[in-house]
Amino acid sequence: GSPSTFHLNSRMHQVRLDNLLRTPGAPPILVNTIHPVSKADGSLIATWSGRGEGLKADFDLALQSPSAAPPGTLPVSGAARGSIEIGRGFALHLAASDFRTPHSSIAAQGTLAPTAAASLADPLRLSVATDDFEEWRPFFQSLVAIPSGIPLELKSQAEFSGQLTGSYDAPSIAGSEILPLDQRMGKQPRR
Questions:
Q1: Following DSSP, what letter does each residue of 17-55 receive, concatenated?
Q2: Distance between the two ends of the chain, CA-based, in angstroms?
Q3: From the CA atom positions of the chain, what is the Rg in Å?
Q4: Which end of the chain is more exposed for a tag (fewer CB within 10 A), N or C?
Q5: What are the backbone dihedrals phi and psi of residue 141, each rounded to the nearest 5 degrees, phi first?
Q6: Predicted pLDDT of residue 114
Q7: 154-173 burial, b for 16+ CB within 10 Å, e for fewer?
Q8: Which residue has the higher pLDDT, 86 or 127?
Q9: What pLDDT is attached to residue 119?
Q10: β-bridge pairing 90-100 and 104-112
Q11: Are the C-beta atoms of 124 and 163 separated by less than 8 Å?
Q12: How many CB atoms lie within 10 A of CB 72?
C-alpha cells in the first residue's frame, strides 16, 4: 500500500552542474539566465519514496570549470556542502560554499526556500566580489523590470556583503557595498 523508500549513497564524478540544477522542483532562474557550466565531483546521500516524493539529500561537491567554456555560458569552480529537500517546494541549504567565475568570487551560507518555508529559513548570507557586472547582468535583469536595462558599469572591483531573505520567488536582498580603495580615498575609479 505505501510507496517504496529508496536510499542512495554515491560518489559523483564529472556530473554536469547544469544537470544538477535541473532537479525537479528547483527554481529555473539560475540555469535559464546565467547558464553555469562546471563538472562536479563528490558525495551525494539521498532518500526518497515513490517517484521522488519527499526527496532529501546531503551533498559535498567540488566544482571544476571547463578549460574552454561554450559561448553564452558562465564557467564556475569552487566547492559546496549542504542539503536539498523537496517537499512543498525546493529548499537548498548551503552549510558552506565558495564559487569562482572568471571575474567574481562568491561565498554563501544559509537557506534558499520556497514561499511557504522562507519565513522559517536561515537567511542566505552572501559575500560577493566582482570586477565585471556583465557576468551577472542577465541574472539581475531577469529580477528587475527596467525597460532600458540596468544602467550599471563597473570600472574597478566591487564587493557586496549581505543576506538574501524571502523566497526564490520573491527575494529580498539587504547589505552593504564595499567601495574600492581608490573611491574611498576620493580618487577617480580606474578606467
A1: HHHHTT-TT--THHHHHT-EE-EEEEEEEEEEETTTEEE
A2: 68
A3: 18
A4: N
A5: -70, -25
A6: 75
A7: eeebbeeebbbbbbbeeeee
A8: 127
A9: 58
A10: antiparallel
A11: yes
A12: 9
Buried b (16+ CB within 10 A) or exposed e, 87-125: eebbbbbbeebbbbbebbebbbbbbbbbeebbeebebbe
pLDDT the model gives residue 12: 92
Which position has the grid cell 559523483? 12
Instruction: Please write the tens of the pLDDT for every residue from 55-104.
Output: 899 999 999 999 888 888 899 999 999 999 887 778 889 999 999 999 99
At residue 177, the 3 state secondary structure works out as: strand
Closest CA to 3 of 56, 55, 51: 51
- How many whole angstroms separate alpha carbon 123 and alpha carbon 119? 9
Q: Is the dihedral of CA 20, 132, 183, 148 positive or negative?
A: negative
Only one residue has cell 559575500, namely 127
The whole-number average pLDDT for the span 109-134 is: 80
- β-pairing, 74-75 vs 36-37, is parallel
